[in-house]
# Entry
Amino acid sequence: MSKEFHLTTARRVPLNTQKRIKNISPGLIGRVVVVRTLFNTFTGCLLSVGRNTIRLRIFSGIDRLFITIRIPIGIIIDIFRFPCP
# Structure
């Protein structure tokens, strides 16, 4: 069973960026994606897209566990499919 964490911050990205993320995200569910936020970049499997958050499953190399994080859409700068050669 994976642990679940929730990221929070008071800073936000512009509304047009938030709308673009909401439109792109549902097509990426179940795929490995790269999520750039205001303070970090995460690579993992996109589990679900809610009204205000996305759930991303990432691998913690330190504990060798999978961790589920909820990221508010308001702090996501960009989301795209992981480029596999």
Summary: Residues 33 and 81 are 4 Å apart (CA to CA). The mean pLDDT is 90. The first strand starts at residue 3 and ends at 6. The domain at 3-81 is CATH 2.30.30.100 (SH3 type barrels.).
